[in-house]
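From: lab user (bench 3)
To: helpdesk
Subject: output format question, protein + calcium ion

Hello, I'm new to running complex predictions and I'm not sure whether the block I got back is the full result or only part of it. Here's what I submitted:
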Amino acid sequence: MQEKTVPEKRMKSSIWMSCISSVVVLAGCGQSQPVAAAESPATSSPAVTAAVPVATTFTSLPTGFEACVAELRQRSAAAGVSAAAIEQGFASVRYMDSIIRLDRAQPEFTSGFADYYRGRVSADRIARGQRLLQEHAATFSKIEAEYGVPAHYLLAFWGLETNFGGYFGDTPILPALATLACDGRRAELFSGELINALKIIDAGEMTPERMRGSWAGAMGNVQFMPTTFLKYAVDADGDGKRDLWGSVPDAMASAANFLRGLGWQRGLRWGREVSLPEGFDYRQTGLQTKKNLVEWAELGVTAMDRTPLTATDIQAALMVPTGSQGPAFLVYDNFNVIMGWNRAEAYALSVGLLADRIAGGAAPSRAPVDSPRLYRPQVIQIQNFLNANGFDAGTPDGVFGPGTRAAISRFQHANGLVADGFPTPAVLHLLGAE
Ligand SMILES: [Ca+2]
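Helpdesk reply: Thanks, we reran it on our side. This is the complete output you should expect:
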């Protein structure tokens, strides 16, 4: 079994991972909202990552929007933004109530991975990705040679972030970032993003009027935050500007440059579907458990056609996003790179699986299993039950995340059940939450 990026046309099946929990629907959310807000703690926008530090560190901002904005202007000047760009940029800044409402929205319920996957790795999206692969073949070929990231991955990010440029978000970025900076909860993060947005304007790479995107500040075809833009965006079409809105070569090369910066390993895949033996101990699933392929093979993990795994020291984690009845995946280092772009497991698996399909690979052999929609009060009830019975689920927050899943797995094991952490109706019954 090759671990290369070469698409596996022969692969009979493939599939999915373990995060019933990372798919959260925000109450009242409209368009390009974060796909998995509950597991993107830093901010809910996609291309924010801890790997990309904000430009400046601050103490707290004054309360009151006017005073806060005055302070932000001073800090922008201190950070080297020109007076002209400050005037131009702040002319549009106003308090946006709607941003705060979106930022404070609590996830109403947790949806399962099966729903998430079907919505994002659709036949239409695969076909469009394949057409765009042909259309921009020369561009992608140059990008892969330079950055080491194959076209099908870039297309998968592009497809998931904006449906290949179909929607960038129409929120004016500067007022949105100023509002979030002055809201206080993540003042440091968003102040830095605002200043970096002004630097982009100062450099003449975008105007305040055209600088629009998601409500949390993500911009363009691949939804970069301003800090990511400054650090990783590149001018690939040679017009002297880094245009992530209007230039496909710029957007795709920038995405590749970002992934390389996050540690993408040339020539390696994201992961693959695997087959697990009867009686497998599912407590070994989840990103926290890494073993090399030799060790996984010793545990009975095989390729889907039951041939042995390649005996290598490649490190991998095993994911069963919809439990023991759904598909299982071994994920490699490049999967962690995808998680560096967006910390939601469901997102990262969808990127990998969409990439495989765009490259001509088959769908996973086992379909993800549907799971019940879990509402916040119900999840809190489950978390309280687990905590009360010694299966530490952490602080009850109503979000079905990896901690809750792991606690359910321990509960299942203690009760002689398959410890896959998946909340089937039978498991919910035992947890007192049907
Ligand atoms: Ca350009």
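A quick orientation on your result: The mean pLDDT is 87. Let us know if anything else is unclear.
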